[in-house]
Write a structure and sequence with these properties.
alpha+beta, 28% helix
């Protein structure tokens, strides 16, 4: 699964990364990818959360 984050740290619809994690918990997901279009520095908080 892959999630795209904006510079604000939220997904495109304004939801937090925790919402993606909650939605994916029901599936047998081995890996969650984060799209780094904004750059790796802006993804620090999301990576730490996951």
């Amino acid at each position: 699964m892959q999630v795209t984050l904006q510079e604000s740290g939220t997904m495109l619809l304004g939801t937090e990364i925790g919402a993606a994690l909650t939605a994916l918990e029901v599936f047998d997901v081995d890996i969650i990818g984060l799209n780094c279009a904004t750059g790796p520095k802006e993804m620090n908080d999301a990576v730490r959360y996951l």
